[in-house]
Amino acid sequence: MAQRGLPPEEIKKHLIRLRNLEYLHEVHRFKIWHLRDENREFRKEIKALKLVVGKQQKTINDVKLQIEELRTMVFGKKNKRSESDDDDIAPLKEKTPRTAESYKRLIPKDAEVSETEPHPLSQCSCGTGIIKKSTAVFYEEDIPMPTKKIVREHIVEKGYCPKCGKWLSAIPLSEVAGLGAIGRAS
């Protein structure tokens, strides 16, 4: 009678192959799960990085605008020349001398002041009370931006200590002068 089916050696080979495939199937299933998790984490990270890049791009655009405004303030606006301007050479204008007041900033109006910071002075570092008190007011302005500018008013008390024989102020006014602040004494 003729033998039906595969010989036992062939069956053994197929069973070994099936066992290997089942093992690889399990291994690859775990790898796929791991890769899915990793893919989800990467997608979350990409979203977070896109937000950061968007904020940085907005900051870069703001800084570029500030630089352009500062260039305009320092160097003035550029005049675009046409070809006809080359033919008409205009004589140079004489410079008008500037007064010392033209180099100072104007004191801002009360409506422009957005913040007020008082700096009180009640006693000297030695513990003695201050006499002959007066106040000095200075303003701190930031660079104008497309948004509303901030003008900070500082009210600094200053006075004389009879024990030490020194004039004192709540904050050092020499440091404030270095910041380019606008001031008035009262």
Concise overview:
This protein has helices at residues 8-75, 83-87, 173-178; strands spanning 115-119, 131-141, 151-161, 166-169, 182-185. The chain is α+β, with helices and mostly antiparallel strands.
Characterise this structure:
- The chain is an alpha+beta fold.
- It folds into two domains: 7-77; 106-185, no CATH class.
- It is 42% helix and 19% strand.
- The protein contains three helices and five strands.
- It has helices spanning 8-75, 83-87, 173-178; strands spanning 115-119, 131-141, 151-161, 166-169, 182-185.
- Strands 1, 2, 3, 4 and 5 form a five-stranded mixed beta sheet that branches.
- The longest helix has 68 residues, at 8-75.
- The chain starts with 7 loop residues before the first helix and ends with a strand.
Number of strands: 5
Mean pLDDT comes to 81
> What count of helical segments does DSSP give?
3
Oligomer: single chain
Q: Main β-sheet: number of strands, strand sense, barrel status? A: 5 strands, mixed
Note the run of SSEs as H and E: HHEEEEHE
- Helical percentage: 40-55%
